[in-house]
Specification:
Elements (H helix, E strand, L loop, with lengths): L3 E2 L13 E3 L12 E6 L6 H15 L2 E5 L7 H7 L3 E5 L7 H10 L12 E5 L4 H10 L4 E3 L1 E4 L12 E5 L6 E5 L7 E4 L2 E2 L7 H11 L3 E2 L1 H12 L3 E6 L5 E2 L7 E5 L2 E6 L2 E4 L7 E8 L12 H8 L2 E7 L7 H11 L7 H19 L20 H7 L6 H13 L3 E4 L6 E3 L8 E9 L2 H7 L3 E9 L5 H4 L14 E4 L17 E3 L3 E4 L9 E8 L1
Parallel strand pairs: 2-23, 3-4, 3-5, 5-6, 7-22, 8-9, 8-14, 14-19, 19-20
Antiparallel strand pairs: 1-26, 9-10, 10-11, 12-13, 15-16, 16-17, 17-18, 20-21, 23-24, 24-28, 25-27, 26-27
């Protein structure tokens, strides 16, 4: 496919966006191809896992494709079918770090540009029943209205009717916004003085970091989490495939038999199982998105006992964090306009556009996650950067993008319509698009048969800073572009001759970097297509 790259950045209003197929004076609903990839056979509970496959097939009128060992065997068939959505149904014993990395890479190999050609998600669980709940929970849309976090960055809580968090910046502080309140009330977390049962390592850790007493951060987090049963959970701090720590806390959340349990010094108990679906975004945690080829992983337990219907997490140690924090920024910027899978998809394409604009070879160069890359920068990156005489900060910027490119796992139906609720007063621009058939003269001059006209209308109180992310998590993600996820895929999209704005366009999306939008104005972008 021919692509047009002039730079990158975009934001869009999906709830208010209308995509009209104008040709005969009528609108038209288009089918978006959906593929389900599944093993030829399931070793255990075949009937249960096949029910998951058939459930997705019925829900999305999907085509089922069977692989013997890995989903990557279906690459040729996917190119031929050209789906917009791909769900991979598989057992956790088959899913690990390299599995996720290769899925990310394969999604970009459907044509010759660097962008993912389909949105994908892995549908799995501790067992077939858990995977089936994930499918069942995705049938109806969901609006996120409540949240709990172990991060400070969402403390404005404007997106939520109720929200609570434990502070990962000032350990020992927490905040809570109760229903009917406009802002958070802060308090100091109670300190734990009873260390009965703690092993020698725990005692040394507490004494070195806190003295004799330690803020009981984990207990406070669980009080919020179990009490709220929130729609959204966002976590950071230390984690592995087997545990999750709260910032500065003694004790861990661990997994056993598909459930989460609390491991305090001298105390263990299960986390209360949930009865309602939720979204879990451990975007600041290492490794927790890696099922590690076992059902005994944290990811499997969150999907099973906590009904995490959408889950996006890292399968490697994270440090730069663009893939995770960027996905969250796309989700909460202009809230309600992107679903969770769309937000993470758009962030990844924004990453790819920026990588391609600097060094196209970096869009495909494999990253060695087994090397000690914190000790020595990869020689390939140093060689690519040499002609540009980059500063150390700039070099680490691209190193971070390269590291993050393929290592975020998305679990769940990639077409699930789950999004943040809108924030009053912040829906200050609308985006609409319509398709026009070209006249014979225009078609002859452009080589296209149609054009998509995207119209952006800003309100009198429009804020460009808010559209670009309002400074959220700037150390990981700079200003966002204006972005638009096309309601339907375009065929061979390209920009008109003479377009000078910094625009990236692909079959699924458009990014406009450095948008010079002003309040109370109307802007249009034209995209020719077949």
């Amino acid at each position: 496919m021919k692509k047009s790259l002039i730079a990158a950045s975009v934001a869009f209003c999906s709830l208010s966006a209308a995509f009209l197929m104008v040709g005969c004076g009528s609108s038209k609903t288009e089918y978006e191809p959906y593929a389900v990839l599944a093993p030829v056979s399931f070793a255990e509970d075949s009937a249960g896992w096949e029910g998951v496959v058939s459930g997705l097939q019925r829900m999305h009128e999907a085509r089922v494709m069977r692989f013997k060992s890995t989903p990557m065997e279906m690459e040729a068939q996917l190119k031929e079918f050209n789906p917009r959505y791909v769900a991979v149904v598989d057992v956790p014993e088959n899913i690990g770090r390299d599995y996720v990395i290769e899925l990310n890479r394969m999604s970009r190999r459907m044509d010759d540009d660097p962008y993912a050609d389909f949105l994908w998600g892995i549908v799995t669980g501790y067992d077939a029943a858990a995977a089936q709940r994930m499918v069942d929970n995705s049938v109806e849309p969901m609006v996120i209205r409540s949240g709990v976090g172990s991060i400070k960055e969402l403390e404005s809580a404007k997106w939520f009717d109720k929200y609570a968090f434990v502070d990962d910046h000032v350990v020992g502080m927490c905040g809570e916004k109760k229903p009917g309140e406009d802002s958070l009330t802060y308090k100091e977390i109670a300190y734990r003085t009873d260390m009965a049962g703690a092993n020698e390592y725990i005692r040394e850790f507490v004494e070195k970091r806190f003295g004799k007493d330690v803020p009981d951060v984990l207990r406070q987090f669980l009080e919020y989490y179990e009490g709220y049963e929130p729609d959204l959970v966002v976590t950071a701090s230390h984690a592995t495939e087997e545990n999750l720590e709260m910032p500065g806390s003694v004790g861990n959340i661990r997994c056993r038999d598909g459930r989460l349990y609390v491991d305090y010094p001298g105390e263990q108990r299960f986390v209360k199982d949930r009865d309602s679906r939720m979204v879990y975004l451990p975007i600041g945690n290492c490794l927790i998105g890696n099922m590690n080829n076992t059902r005994g992983s944290m990811a499997a337990a969150w999907m099973n006992s906590q009904q995490a219907t959408a889950f996006a997490g890292y399968v490697v140690t994270t440090w730069y964090g663009r893939n995770g924090w960027g996905g969250l920024k796309y989700l909460i910027t202009n809230p309600g306009r992107y679903s969770v899978p769309e937000a993470f998809y758009m962030n990844q394409q924004d990453m790819m556009a920026q990588i391609a604009a600097w060094k196209d070879t970096l869009t495909t160069a494999p990253f060695d996650y087994d090397a000690n890359y914190f000790e020595t920068l990869p020689s390939e990156l140093v060689r690519m950067a040499a002609p540009d005489t980059l500063s150390e900060d700039e070099l680490f910027f691209w190193f971070g993008f390269w590291h993050d490119r393929d290592v975020l796992a998305y679990y769940g139906d990639p077409k699930w319509n789950v999004r943040m609720q809108e924030v009053p007063g912040e829906t200050d621009f609308t985006v609409t698009s319509r398709m026009q058939r070209l006249s014979a003269a225009e078609a002859s001059a452009t080589g296209a048969s149609r054009k998509c006209v995207i119209t952006v209308e800003t309100s009198p109180d429009f804020s460009l800073r808010r559209m670009q992310g309002d400074g959220f998590k700037e150390e990981h993600v700079l200003d966002l572009p204006f972005s638009y996820f096309f309601p339907h895929r375009l065929d061979n999209p390209r920009l008109p001759e003479g377009e000078t704005r910094e625009i990236v366009v692909d079959e699924n999306f458009l990014l406009l970097y450095n948008p010079a939008f002003e309040p109370g104005r109307t802007y249009t972008i034209e995209v020719f297509c077949d």
